[in-house]
Write a structure and sequence with these properties.
mainly alpha, N-utilizing Substance Protein B Homolog, Chain A, about 5% strand, globular, two-stranded parallel ribbon
Length: about 150
């Protein structure tokens, strides 16, 4: 049985896809326009859920998507400081980079959202993008970054 996906979950998924697309040099404004176009059929939804694009939370999507760019240097710094010394952000797969950037953007934009909800949502997204092997890594780095953000509040 397929479950219905909630509006914020869909917005998170689409924000990750949008940031992933941008990592290949696509124009930010064009990506945002495409994701707001109800007729856009380019979404690759691999979740076992029923989707109602009318419930796509555009405001939530726009805030976390745009915050990736507005806080880009800060987000990169948070990721870099929490990677093992032998790793750099550029060595991470682009889809993993997109997941981390959007998750961190959400933590910054919505600091009152439970870290448990954020981590759970982005771990499910990692599975939908077929990067299940990185779930422990995602969990650990998001938890470390959340603690850093709490200290800086």
């Amino acid at each position: 049985m397929r479950k219905k996906i909630i509006a914020k979950s869909l917005s998170r998924y689409l924000a990750v896809q949008a940031i992933f697309n941008q990592s290949f040099g696509f124009d930010k404004k064009k990506i945002e326009q495409d994701f707001f176009d109800q007729n856009d059929s380019k979404f690759n939804i691999d979740l076992d859920c029923e989707l109602d694009m009318k419930k796509f939370n555009k405001i939530f999507f726009k805030k976390i998507f745009n915050n990736v760019f507005e806080k880009e240097e800060y987000i990169y710094d948070l990721i870099s400081k929490n990677l093992e010394s032998s790793w750099t952000l550029s060595r991470l797969p682009k889809v993993l980079q997109a997941i981390l950037k959007v998750a961190i953007s959400e933590m910054i934009t919505y600091p009152r959202t439970s870290i448990g909800i954020i981590i759970t949502e982005y771990l499910m997204l990692a599975e939908s993008f077929s990067i299940e092997k990185e779930t422990n890594f995602i969990n650990a780095i998001l938890d470390k970054i959340h603690k850093t953000l709490q200290v800086n509040e």
